[in-house]
């Protein structure tokens, strides 16, 4: 359940980034830039989530690594789709 909540938070954060990209640039180029900036920011957040799982929840890095990949990949792929879609419109 925690994994789904973190992925949903990532998608919500992506929405915030894209919204601020629109407000900042008032065009699709600002939204594309915001989606691109989201990916490394989300990698940091997903890494912190993994660190919490290892340091405080008692999981090993080996246990947490697949979860990190899943938690990072879903919002990052959606961000990539947004960049692709907005770049081709």
Summarize the structure.
This protein is mainly α and 89 residues long. It is built from 3 helices and no strands. The model has no long low-confidence stretch (mean pLDDT 93).
What does this structure look like?
This protein has 89 residues and is mainly α. Helices cover 89% and strands 0% of the residues. It has helices at 2-25, 28-55, 61-87. It is elongated.
Helix-strand blueprint:
Elements (H helix, E strand, L loop, with lengths): L1 H24 L2 H28 L5 H27 L2
Observed structural traits:
single chain, 89 residues, mainly alpha, 89% helix
Number of strands: 0
Distance between the termini: 36 Å
How much β-strand is present in the residues?
under 5%
* Helix count, DSSP H or I runs of 4 or more residues: 3
Rg is 14 Å
Low-pLDDT stretches are none
Mind summarizing the main beta sheet? none
Arithmetic mean of pLDDT: 93
- How helix-rich are the residues, as a percent range? over 70%
Secondary-structure class:
mainly alpha
Sum up the overall morphology in one term: elongated
Element pattern in H and E: HHH
